[in-house]
Write a structure and sequence with these properties.
mainly alpha; 3 helices; rod-shaped; 88% helix
Amino acid sequence: MPPRKRLLLTAPTPRFEIEESSTAAARQPRSTVACRVDYGFVDTLDASIRASEQKAMAAVESVNLRVNYQANVHRRESEEFQTRHQDAHDDRAALRDEVDTLRRYLSSLCTTHEKERVEARQALDRSEAHIKALEAWIAALEAGARIDTLEDTGSSA
């Protein structure tokens, strides 16, 4: 409502004379029955309002309890999730470190085995060369022994 009209409705106008109403006159000390009836009605309304307020406050308290419970549950679940997430992250990092350690170990084993294989191959090659040299020396000795035997048989004949 515009302020001009509000002022017109609330302010008394000069055309009318304001007098005491009949209900105000009835509330005078001489009329106790009217007071009891009016106050009884007001008391009933007050009691009804208080009961409604109490019900509303009880409902608000109930809602607050539920909200607090849900907030606590949510907080605990969030903390548990964070803990599990951190544990999984730590486990993953530990597994990654273990895999890296195993890779380095296998790499060093492969390198060691490769070196040993190369050394074994070189030793085998040296052994085969030594065997060939020995076979050649034996062949030379046998050839020399045959020559000596032929010479001995030729000089005795």
